[in-house]
Amino acid sequence: MRALIRRVSRAKVRVGSWVSGKIDSGLLVYLAVHGKDDREDLEWIVKKILGLRIFDDENDRMNLPISDAQGILVVSQFTLYGNLRKGFRPSFNKSAEPEFARVTYDRFLNVLSEKFKGLVQSGRFGENMFVEVEEEGPVTIWLDSHEKAY
Length: 150
What we know:
Oligomer: single chain
CATH class: Alpha Beta
Largest sheet: 6 strands, mixed
Strand content: 35-45%
Low-confidence stretches: none
Number of helices: 2
Structural class: alpha/beta
CATH architecture: 3-Layer(bba) Sandwich
């Protein structure tokens, strides 16, 4: 499982004119499911997201995790598994098949909502979405549950 996490002042995702998710201060999480992901991968990503100390403390140092007063907006993005090893057209062969990815994405949202008491919003899985973001920092963090050593 891969997650690209961005600290935001606000973020919103639309499908056409319908707003499917919106947060003020918090995290925008782009999430991709690998074909071999399991419960351990999901739990590891959730734990890392909720433990990330990327919010400023009283001394303006990144030292605080997300608070329950903030929000998390999750957007599915299989293209995080795109690779260009064979040229210029990305291959997504490590991305999970759509049905497995959808089930895992929904499970991720459920686990995240159970463990985080703040607002959890999401985009629509498998839809073409429009994401509006106002980044803070900017701060962007990359997580990959299959490469935990970095």
